[in-house]
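Late entry, written up from scratch paper. The run itself happened at the end of the previous shift, but nothing got recorded in the book at the time, so transcribing now.
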Amino acid sequence: MSSVSSLSLLLLLSITTSLLVISHAKDSFTAELIHRDSPKSPFYNPNLTLSERFEAAVNRSLIRSCSFGRQERLTSMSADLTSNGWGEYMMKIGIGTPPVDVLGFADTGSSLIWTQCEPCTKCIRQPNPLFNPKVSATYRLLKCSWTQCSDLSPITSCGEGGACVYKEAFVDGSYTQGNIATESIKIGTSKILSVIFGCGYQNSLHASGSAGVIGLDLGEGSLVSHLGPAISGVFSYCLSPIFSNRRSSISFGVVSGPGPYGVTTPLSKKPGSDRYQLTLEAVSVDGTRLEFPGSAYGGANEGNMNIDSGTTLTFLPMDFYNQVVAEVDKVMNAEKVDMGKKGLSLCYRAAGNDVILPEIRMHFKGGDLRLKIQRDTVCFSFIGSPADSAIFGNMGQSDFAVEYDRNAGTVSFAPRECN
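Output as recorded:
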């Protein structure tokens, strides 16, 4: 097994199946990913402190984790949180002919591509004009009798005049509903024809700014599924640390490979799920190996941990998380910092050269990821999950080239300074 290093700690207080045609096709194409707390983001609030942004990210992560956990625990857990929306990284695409810019959340946990559309009976505020299908030369409604509509079940149904309509609800109470149609999508200079997407006429999100979602999971409606053979089933992203000024990006068709110091681990495909799932075998703290007992969905078997771009923190079932906390406490001689969040116990004031910082490794099937610690007041990217879910969040993935090869059924991690 090989080891790689990554930033997985957050500095808190330092300043420090439709017809697919691609025109102008290349072997790959790349788009910028904009974190919601970036000055480039419509969500950016310069008045928030770093600690306040972190607290908001924790809340979004907790709400997001509900969709991966046990249903009976979700209602009470969500009720205790104040939602400021969901989604972490946005990308810009052009929809229609002529193309209209849409800034949507790039989400490995969603299947559908959707955006707000005119005429909108209920919409949220967004920086760009809404997409108007009436002025696009390539907009085509989908019929509910077509297989492309049933492929998106259970969120689709038959509407007026036999149109394929959809409604998708999210765990924080947000929702979108409208028509399913096909349309041209432009990413950079690459144009994808006849992409199935949701044209939302009633939309409710708990934060204004985003125009929709760009689904990237294994489902039939995701952007990656539409691109299919044109990108050889491969996409990758490189996420800079969430409060840094460095650029993040997503690439389609780039086959970078894990490299000499990288790690490749197999994907596990479970019936009824379109999510990307990995197999976590253990976590070690300074050489003490803690065998992972499994999660609420997946047990100790293969596919016991989701990898997700839309969750900031890495979630571990609470009992196992407490074991990790106990091992870290044995070797950390730094003062603990109370963040006021249940399950977030791994925060320390760690400035100074006399502080002992442990080596933490996540042992995935096929390879280990060594989590590199920075000095200052820090929080490990782990958090205990009240829903007993297991999610590998985007903080732990920062400064990696993370490559999904759907044909090979693998995810690879190669160390990079994303920029």
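DSSP finds six helices and 30 strands in the chain.
(Scratch paper discarded after transcription.)
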